[in-house]
Amino acid sequence: MNAKAVLSKPNPRVLIVNDDGIDAPGIVLLEEIVRQFTDDIWVVAPDEERSGAGHSLSLSYPIRIRQRDERHFAVKGTPTDYALLGVYELLGDRKPDLLLSGINRGPNLAEDITYSGTASAAIEGAMLGIPSIALSQIWSYNTPVHWETARHYTAQILPGLIDMAWTQGSFVNVNFPHCPLDEVTGVRVTTQGMRPPGSFRPMRRVDERHVPYYWIKIAFPDGGAAEGNDLAAARDKAVSITPMQLDMTAYDQLDAMRARFERAGIVQPA
């Protein structure tokens, strides 16, 4: 789908979702920014935080919706549910011209994409043929959230992202650096990085009945920042814009894998 006409068309329709909650500061800020471009904005977001939900669906239990007003809906479900409900049910007969997910409080860099509810809502938008952008403000526990950085650069980069030709099955992942606005070193178009293993670990606890339970601890290991990737941009206090796609085929392994199984007589020669 070519999104070039999104901003130029009269009052484009925008669906905003997130995984931090319908009242989270990031989604409130994003709606405020998008009002510079249109007033046809619809918000479908969780009634409570759903971080780490990934690209999951609510298949085994009903999805409950609480309508806040004409265009704001709080949902008990997953970020993928919010995208589906917005597109197929809540926005009526006209689909959104653009889906925006965020602004997330916390990073969605490197392999975070596989866990991220923020990114997964954008993935679902891409699957539905809608230009979709995930936005995240990098943040660390017990530190300030630099929303002014996200505010400034969201307004700056959105027109450029929307005014481009989108490849079918693609979406964009944006991360704003964890620093004040005056420390940002620039904007980079990046590749997806990959950290060393060990970002998430189960931590054992014992309750008052001496029964063990676990929390998943987040502790990103050092490493993985390479020239041109999103981790390097974050390290250097730069905004990263990463074009991504749904096709996860490892093309560089196809020929070797095919040849291996052809020699074994398992796969017929092409």
From TrEMBL:
> What EC number(s) does its UniProt record assign?
3.1.3.5
Protein name as it appears in the record: 5'-nucleotidase SurE
Keywords recorded for this protein, A-Z? Cytoplasm, Hydrolase, Metal-binding, Nucleotide-binding
Q: Where in the cell is it found?
A: Cytoplasm
Function according to Swiss-Prot or TrEMBL = Nucleotidase that shows phosphatase activity on nucleoside 5'-monophosphates.
Matching entries from InterPro entries are given as: SurE, SurE-like_Pase/nucleotidase, SurE-like_sf
The reaction(s) catalysed by this protein are: a ribonucleoside 5'-phosphate + H2O = a ribonucleoside + phosphate
The answer to whether UniProt assigns keyword Cytoplasm to this entry is yes
Which cofactors are named for this entry?
a divalent metal cation
Summarize where a divalent metal cation binds, as residue positions. D19, D20, S51, N104
Origin species, per record, is Novosphingobium colocasiae
Family membership, please give it.
Belongs to the SurE nucleotidase family.
The note on cofactor binding and number reads: Binds 1 divalent metal cation per subunit.
Gene Ontology cellular-component annotations: cytoplasm
Is the keyword Metal-binding in the record? yes
What positions does the domain Survival protein SurE-like phosphatase/nucleotidase occupy?
A: 14-195
User: What are the protein's GO molecular function terms?
Assistant: 3'-nucleotidase activity; 5'-nucleotidase activity; exopolyphosphatase activity; metal ion binding; nucleotide binding
